[in-house]
Design brief:
Radius of gyration: 17 Å
Distance between the termini: 33 Å
Strand content: 25-35%
Shape: globular
Number of helices: 5
Largest sheet: 7 strands, mixed
Bound molecules: biotinyl-5-AMP
Number of strands: 12
Order of helices and strands: EHEEHEEEEHHHEEEEE
């Protein structure tokens, strides 16, 4: 059971973006742990203003407002903690091992089932989590079908949104108490040790991901032995054999 996560809550049938609403609420003084959910989002967003598909009642579209202490305020690191929390909630409910792709996508059998977006708002951090729960393939736009899926599609397990939300908030609380989660993240992140293609606005190169820096950047060594520090905001990472 969560204690502070979700202690104050707003739920909408339809909203532009739960992250956008959470930012407004944070500005008005929302407490640590305040949560916004919606049945559907008309302008759900990912990084760099990517669109996030939020089919009505088919997924958990949630934002939580955190007012972190110094030790958890490095945004990429906090995002790893949120990825671990979300992975654990999904794994425990489905019985299937969810995988982490740097920086904070969650995959199940090669497809993206969760996206996480962290944004700063003053001294608060807005954590937006989108979990695809019950969509069928036809519910995704054509261009996403080769890389996106729901928990139901990948596991055939039906999960209630209420149960998932409850478990997710409890896992978020648990993770916020764990000080040093980086070794666990490094161990569980499937990107580390994999061959990857790094796609930035200006260039594309192949390499091998060898680890994550203390600031949360991905370290990628290229064919010439040069190590690149890759920051999450700017890039897409593709496995050289596909999305993973
Ligand atoms: C993310 O961005 O993955 C972060 C998504 C965060 C969504 C949550 S929902 C609640 C809260 N409110 C918001 O407005 N946002 C947050 P990024 O790494 O940029 O990935 C976005 C890309 O994922 C898109 O460009 C598509 O290719 C793909 N995509 C879009 N919708 C998807 C979905 N439902 N499932 C899987 N992939 C999707």
């Amino acid at each position: 059971m969560a204690n502070w996560a979700g202690v104050e809550k707003r739920h909408y049938d339809a909203v532009d973006s739960t992250n956008k609403q959470a930012r407004l609420w944070a500005r008005q003084g929302a407490p640590h742990g305040a949560v916004i959910t919606a049945k559907t989002q008309t302008a759900g967003r990912g990084r760099q203003n990517h669109q996030w598909e939020s089919a009505p009642s088919a997924g958990l579209w949630l934002s939580i407002i955190l007012r972190p202490t110094m030790s958890t305020c490095i945004l990429p690191l906090l995002s790893f903690a949120m990825a671990l929390a979300t992975a654990d909630a999904c794994t425990n409910l489905t019985g299937h091992q969810v995988q982490l792709k740097w920086p904070n996508d969650l995959l199940l059998y090669g497809k993206k089932i969760v996206g996480i977006l962290l944004e700063r708002e003053g001294d608060a951090v807005i954590v937006g989590i989108g979990i695809n729960v019950s969509q069928e393939e036809k519910d995704f736009p054509l261009e996403l079908r080769n890389k996106a899926a729901s928990l139901k599609m990948q596991t055939d397990v039906s999960i209630s949104l209420e149960q998932l939300e409850k478990d997710l908030l409890a896992e978020i609380e648990r993770r916020m108490d764990i000080q040093d989660f980086m070794p666990e993240y490094q161990q569980r992140c499937i990107t580390i040790g994999s061959k990857v293609q790094v796609i930035t606005t200006f260039s594309t190169f192949d390499g091998t991901a060898i680890g994550v820096s203390s600031e949360g950047a991905l370290l990628v060594i290229d064919a010439n032995g040069i190590t690149h520090t890759v920051y999450a905001g700017e890039v897409s990472i593709r496995g050289v054999t596909g999305y993973v």
